[in-house]
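Ticket #4471: structure output looks truncated?

Reporter: J.K.
Steps to reproduce: submitted the chain below (281 residues) through the standard prediction queue, then opened the result file.
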Amino acid sequence: MNKHIFLLLTLCGIASVSFAGGGWPQPKGKGYFKLSQSYILSPRYFDGNGEIVDLASSYGYFATSLYGEYGFTDRLTGIIYLPFFARATKNELRYNQSGINDPGDALNSFGDTDIAIKYGLVVNKPIVVSATLLLGLPLGDNGATNASALQTGDGEFNQMLRIDASHSFYPKKFYVSAYAAFNNRTKGFSDEVRFGAELGLTLDKFIPIFKVSTVHSLFNGDPSTPQNGVFSNNTEFISPSLELNYQVTEKIGVSGSIATALAARNILASPNFGVGVYLKL
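Returned output as attached by the reporter:
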């Protein structure tokens, strides 16, 4: 498989979900549900050495997904990230240096899905702490039967343990959160460690959130596993992102986001955009 056949930098959600509650579990019977669309299109790529290289064709990825959190108890929250429609594209190339016309290609399928359980270790304190066990289900297409090797998943079952800590400065209008995680990957993929932090402001109906996320490979997998994008082995990045939320009613809101990479390996070198609508129970 050509190492330049890759897909996306879903910095808010691929191989991990973006936890809406930080260290706070959902109260019993309460929930947060979000329908969103993310998109990236790029003619450039961070290679295995972290250098940006140009590609013969642009590659894109669309993901229409449902994210949900629901409180089974005041400490135990169920979480799901379900990309029920994923589309990977390789754009048409009318002419290249070899004089070859490439008609392009596309793959539509289900995407890799995450299910998780979050448990509140420390609640009702100035700093709250939770632990999350996440299972990454390989329900997407890993490109094995696609002529262009396009993918909507990596084909491996992963398990991730994540610790979140959060603090609200109420009555001041902001909060901070941080997390650390270990991601065990199968099928010859290297394990990963992940870190991140966020700062959120609650300005009446307007809620901007700034995040920084990092993924670091342990490089302990099978060297022959393809290095073909964010679904590949040994993907790494440092990613800042900005999410803007607007509370339309007490329960319904809309959001938009942009994420990019300051430094990376084996991913697309363009911003990822997202829009969504959410419901709070």
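Triage note (M.O.): checked the attachment and the full token line is present. Confidence is low (pLDDT under 50) at residues 1-17.
Status: closed, working as intended.
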